[in-house]
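Tip: read the tokens left to right.
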């Protein structure tokens, strides 16, 4: 029988493994991560993954398995894969002192605020292990430093060495080396990048991570998670023992995100298996290490609520992403191509420093990929660099891109009011107004490079993608689709009503080949003839359109012409 909806906790649900298991919430077994990690030779690994892909939950699961003194930990793992991994793995259960710290609350607007936030985080961390302050196995000088950290009175140098000091104390007290798990290690760095204090925060983090994870005799193993890999020449310049397993690597490929079988099991447990095709369209499409994955946050949110909507994108703002998109010039054509459902081939450089993103396009694409706003297909390596085909993974993320498009359009001077007037003209067949408004928006927002007439250019594609971006806010009352099979061919753009009784529109774009003597009227005639002969309106009538407008759009450079007619329903 399906699980009751209560067993899928409403977002934000518990991201603590023990709490989730003790409350009986549905859990997708990711304990293979422990097995793969313990069998690997790497002492320290960095696992960058998009936000809300289960990083915190997985680290808390590792802590529950490894930590000494975790009461009834065996029962938490009953029936899970790690319990059948054999004695070589089970010998590690409950064996080590574990430091588990999240840096998500150290985001700050200045370096002073960052230090204050870090002091608070470390104070709470030391409080979890306050028994060390009374332990005769811990050296007095070590206990004194831990006492200052617990009192919130430590200077910056003591704070910088805090994870190392705590790991040494734990080793001495328990007689076993320490496991260090650091969640959201990059949060304070990104916050400093978009506000101030970047260089100071980098230096602090270099010292803290270097002391804790490099040449630390009290360290057994370490794991760091975050959204992005901060450039090697800055944060990790002294940490040559850190193995980074990116989205392109096969290691730990299915540890974050849900596979098809896992999603099928979640939906079956929730009694929503019939929604799998829609869930696949909305939340699938990520590719990690060659494995196709779903967004776990969105899938579980849908399992609990039963509504297809944007879950993941509403969980937090991404100031860094906005900064990059707003400051990166020359990407508009790629941006619009992605919006139309296409892909762009790019070199991915995961080692570009954040400060270089404004003028390093490779870093921009790496940022968008690791943040989950793009997926990587067809990965190949040239001279040691990854070259990938990038595309938008699914409907949910496509909605983010289209909203970002409107923000970019607003910045370019088009204006939201002009877009709304364009919608009104389009849905009422007022093609003269449509041509005027579209020309104005093109003039403001597209460069001549985007609408170029060179032998390698594809201006029809650019105009089509640009128009798709303009139509995003018609959703959900209309469904805007590009290059759909309809009638006897593929229409450039279809605007289909989500419910019967609303108008529908078919758009066909034609470039005016003035160098060959073609006139705008001839291009418009050609587009209208194609709409009629290939019966592009068929899907619109099938969707219940009250009236169908066939709109031909011709362009040359930044000049735009439009002509429309009402299409009679089929006999």
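Filled-in amino acids:
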């Amino acid at each position: 029988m399906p699980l009751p909806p209560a067993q899928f906790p409403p977002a934000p649900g518990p991201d603590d493994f023990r709490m989730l298991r003790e409350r009986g919430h549905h859990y997708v077994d990711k304990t293979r991560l422990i097995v793969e990690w313990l069998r690997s030779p790497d002492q320290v690994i960095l696992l960058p993954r998009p936000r809300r892909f289960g990083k915190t939950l997985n680290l808390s699961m590792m802590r529950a398995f490894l930590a000494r003194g975790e009461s009834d930990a065996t029962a938490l793992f009953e029936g899970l894969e790690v319990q059948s991994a054999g004695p070589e793995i089970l010998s590690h259960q409950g064996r080590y002192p574990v430091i588990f710290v999240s840096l998500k609350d150290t985001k700050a607007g200045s370096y002073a605020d960052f230090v204050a936030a870090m002091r608070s985080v470390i104070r709470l961390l030391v409080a979890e292990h306050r028994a060390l302050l009374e332990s005769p196995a811990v050296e007095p000088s070590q206990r004194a430093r831990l006492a200052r950290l617990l009192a919130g009175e430590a200077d910056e140098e003591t704070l910088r060495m805090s994870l190392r000091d705590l790991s040494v104390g734990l080793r001495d007290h328990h007689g076993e080396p320490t496991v260090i798990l650091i969640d959201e290690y990059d949060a304070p760095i990104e916050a400093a990048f978009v506000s101030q204090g970047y260089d100071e925060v980098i230096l602090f983090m270099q010292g803290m991570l270097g002391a804790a994870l490099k040449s630390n005799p009290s360290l057994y193993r370490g794991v760091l998670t975050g959204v992005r890999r901060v450039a090697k020449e800055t944060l990790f310049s002294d940490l040559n023992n850190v193995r980074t397993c990116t989205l392109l690597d096969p290691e730990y490929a299915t540890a974050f995100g849900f596979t098809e079988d896992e999603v099928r099991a979640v939906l079956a447990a929730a009694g929503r298996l019939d929604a799998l095709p829609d869930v696949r369209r909305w939340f699938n499409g990520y590719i990690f290490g060659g494995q196709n994955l779903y967004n776990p946050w969105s899938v579980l949110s849908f399992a609990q609520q039963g509504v297809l909507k944007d879950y993941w994108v509403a969980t937090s703002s991404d100031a860094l992403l906005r900064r990059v998109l707003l400051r990166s010039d020359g990407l508009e054509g790629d941006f619009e191509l992605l919006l139309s459902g296409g892909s762009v081939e790019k070199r991915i450089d995961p080692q570009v420093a954040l400060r270089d993103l404004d003028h390093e396009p490779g870093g921009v694409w790496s940022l968008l990929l690791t943040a989950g706003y793009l997926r990587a297909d067809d990965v190949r390596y040239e001279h040691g660099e990854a070259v990938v085909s990038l595309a938008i993974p699914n409907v949910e993320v496509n909605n983010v891109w289209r909203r970002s498009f409107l923000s970019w359009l607003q910045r370019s001077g088009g204006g939201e009011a002009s877009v709304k007037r364009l919608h009104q003209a389009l849905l009422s067949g007022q093609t003269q107004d449509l041509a005027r408004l579209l020309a104005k928006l093109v003039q403001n927002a597209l460069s001549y490079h985007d609408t170029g007439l060179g032998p390698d250019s594809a201006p029809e594609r650019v105009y089509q993608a640009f128009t798709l971006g303009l139509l995003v806010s018609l959703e959900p009352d209309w469904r805007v689709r590009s290059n759909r099979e309809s009638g006897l061919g593929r229409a450039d753009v279809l605007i289909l009503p989500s419910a019967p009784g609303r108008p529908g529109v078919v758009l066909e774009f034609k470039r005016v080949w003035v160098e060959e003597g073609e006139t705008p009227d001839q291009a418009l005639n050609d587009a209208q003839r194609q709409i009629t002969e290939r019966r592009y309106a068929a899907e619109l009538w099938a969707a219940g359109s009250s009236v169908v407008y066939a709109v031909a759009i011709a362009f040359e450079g930044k000049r735009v012409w439009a002509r429309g007619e009402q299409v009679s329903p089929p006999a």
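The chain has four domains: 22-244, 260-314, 319-395, 413-567. Confidence is low (pLDDT under 50) at residues 1-6, 447-458.
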